[in-house]
């Protein structure tokens, strides 16, 4: 029997498997929609209630902090950790036999002794050294720059961090130094045939110009941070009364003709003694007299704050802040008791902030937007709004306090303690 096999015929295609269709979702009923909406509203209400409670608690805490001093002290100590004790801090030892000088600049604490400047960071580690021929320094620090010379001598240096950028041997004796944040330096020279000479150098040490004063002494000098103006505070004692003068010098003009570079002169009231000057923003020269504080610009002069009024007479006053000035008053608070009243005035808005501390301030100083009240064995560091940034408490009388940027040093005879602000 013959068998035949037929090849090449197409195979019957497999039937595709059909996927099972999901059952169509039934539309929500009106009742279900209402229930879902109610649940969402309930959840939102829950979060709104929580947010409202947090807001109310925050408001209550803030109100207590700003108005109730005992609560503020507790928050500062245990929550914000503002209170620092001597034993909490890193310290740098000082050899009193070497007559060390402590200087703060470039967010560092520096110690000058035996012609060597040793620079320490915020945790007390030695980060650099510079050899400079200075034992009895006269100096000015601004940011990362330190202009330093030998008092009543001729050697002058500019340091950027731990590097000596330039040094110069001045003809005459250095009486005053100032440096701006760009490294421009100005000095007052005495001991020549002139009463005073003011010399200005750029950040590379090039002398830009000199101004010669035949009959007046220089109480202070200042350079604006835009390298545009030099401020000179002059004292004339040749008359029957002291006469103070403020002169604003334009640096670009002075390089060509110093005599014609004075763009504004203000003659103070007879008898008013100029003490200190400092530039703030927009070319405003803030001037401290023994009776008042003034703002001087090329457009004129205005009195900002009296140092004596019906509230009392200031023990201290300062113009070296970024945008503020202040005065410190002493006010009796009982038998053999007194408070220190710090009045801070913003030079832009003229707004006044007041801070009170128990006891009498022994000294005060300022840098940037930070104010320091030295109360003897305790120190308060405040911003220019009058709020406490740090409190320090020690067990012995403080010799000095230095500050630059976010670092301060509490100076004793045998050590300097570092506070990070």
Largest sheet: 5 strands, mixed
N-to-C span:
112 Å
| Percent range of helical residues | 10-25%
Main structural class? mainly beta
- Average of the residue pLDDT scores: 89
Q: What is the overall shape?
A: globular
Any idea what the radius of gyration is? Answer: 34 Å
Can you give a write-up of this model?
Helix content is 13%, strand content 49%. By secondary structure, it is mainly beta. The relative contact order is 0.09.
Summarize the structure.
The chain has 421 residues and is mainly beta. It has helices spanning 30-67, 69-79, 251-254, and strands at 83-85, 91-93, 101-105, 108-113, 116-120, 126-131, 137-142, 145-150, 155-160, 163-169, 173-179, 185-190, 196-201, 207-213, 217-223, 229-236, 243-250, 262-267, 274-279, 285-289, 292-297, 300-306, 308-309, 312-313, 316-318, 324-334, 337-346, 352-358, 363-367, 370-374, 378-383, 388-393, 400-404, 407-411, 415-420.
Jot down its keywords:
35 strands; mainly beta; about 425 residues; about 15% helix; globular; 3 helices; four-stranded antiparallel beta sheet
Reconstruct the topology from this structure:
Blueprint: H1 30-67, H2 69-79, E1 83-85, E2 91-93, E3 101-105, E4 108-113, E5 116-120, E6 126-131, E7 137-142, E8 145-150, E9 155-160, E10 163-169, E11 173-179, E12 185-190, E13 196-201, E14 207-213, E15 217-223, E16 229-236, E17 243-250, H3 251-254, E18 262-267, E19 274-279, E20 285-289, E21 292-297, E22 300-306, E23 308-309, E24 312-313, E25 316-318, E26 324-334, E27 337-346, E28 352-358, E29 363-367, E30 370-374, E31 378-383, E32 388-393, E33 400-404, E34 407-411, E35 415-420
Parallel strand pairs: 1-32
Antiparallel strand pairs: 2-35, 3-4, 4-5, 5-6, 7-8, 8-9, 9-10, 11-12, 12-13, 13-14, 15-16, 16-17, 17-18, 19-20, 20-21, 21-22, 23-24, 25-26, 26-27, 27-28, 29-30, 30-31, 31-32, 33-34, 34-35
Helix pairs in contact: 1-2
């Amino acid at each position: 029997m013959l068998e035949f096999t037929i090849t090449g015929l197409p195979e019957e295609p497999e039937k595709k498997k059909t996927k099972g269709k999901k059952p169509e979702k039934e539309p929500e009923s009106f009742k279900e929609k209402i229930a879902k909406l109610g649940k969402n509203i309930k959840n939102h209400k829950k979060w709104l209630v929580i947010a409202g409670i947090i807001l109310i608690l925050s408001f209550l805490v803030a109100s207590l902090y700003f108005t109730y001093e005992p609560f503020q002290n507790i928050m500062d100590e245990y929550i914000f950790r503002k209170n620092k004790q001597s034993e909490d801090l890193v310290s740098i030892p000082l050899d009193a036999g070497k007559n060390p000088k402590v200087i703060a600049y470039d967010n560092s604490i520096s110690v000058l002794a035996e012609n060597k400047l040793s620079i320490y960071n915020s945790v007390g580690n030695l980060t650099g050294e510079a050899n400079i021929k200075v034992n009895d320094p006269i100096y000015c620090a601004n940011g990362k720059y330190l202009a330093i010379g030998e008092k009543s001598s001729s050697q002058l240096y500019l340091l950027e961090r731990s590097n000596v950028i330039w040094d110069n041997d001045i003809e005459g004796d250095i009486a005053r130094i100032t440096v701006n944040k760009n490294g421009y330096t100005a000095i007052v020279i005495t001991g020549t045939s002139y009463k005073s000479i003011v010399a200005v150098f750029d950040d590379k040490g090039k002398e830009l110009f000199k101004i010669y004063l035949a009959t007046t002494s220089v109480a202070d000098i200042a350079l604006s941070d835009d390298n545009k103006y030099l401020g000179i505070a002059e004292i004339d004692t040749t008359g029957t009364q002291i006469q103070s003068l403020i002169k604003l010098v334009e640096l670009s003009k002075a390089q060509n003709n110093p005599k014609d570079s004075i763009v504004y002169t203000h003659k103070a009231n007879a008898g008013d003694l100029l003490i200190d000057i400092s530039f703030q923003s927009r070319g405003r020269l803030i001037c401290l007299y023994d009776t008042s504080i003034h703002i001087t610009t090329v457009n004129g002069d205005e009195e900002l704050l009296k140092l004596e009024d019906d509230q009392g007479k200031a023990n201290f006053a300062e113009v070296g802040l970024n945008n503020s000035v202040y005065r410190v008053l002493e006010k009796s608070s009982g038998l053999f008791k007194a408070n220190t009243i710090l009045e801070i005035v913003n030079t832009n808005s003229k707004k006044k902030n007041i801070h009170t501390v128990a006891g009498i301030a022994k000294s005060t100083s300022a840098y940037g937007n930070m104010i320091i009240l030295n109360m003897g064995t305790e120190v308060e560091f405040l911003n220019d709004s009058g709020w406490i940034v740090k409190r320090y408490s020690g067990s012995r009388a403080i010799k000095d306090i230095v500050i630059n940027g976010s670092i301060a040093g509490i100076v004793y005879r045998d050590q300097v303690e570092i506070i990070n602000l």
